[in-house]
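Hey, can you fold this one?
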Amino acid sequence: MISPILNARIDWLWFIVSQIAFGLVCGFVVNLQVKVRTPQFQSLPFAIRAGIHSDLTHLEDDEK
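Sure. Predicted structure:
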């Protein structure tokens, strides 16, 4: 649902094109930045670094 006021005042084609261009330029700029590695997180598994929580360990404890 698009508000009639927005629909009357916004050229949607240019809005979408500008959003895509903005995203591409931002992605390019971020990709140029130097990656910073911190020693405390290098040895941790990806799931812990990403903040993924699992009940798998709790389920294994309950089965014993």
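The mean pLDDT is 80. Let me know if you want another pass with a different chain boundary.
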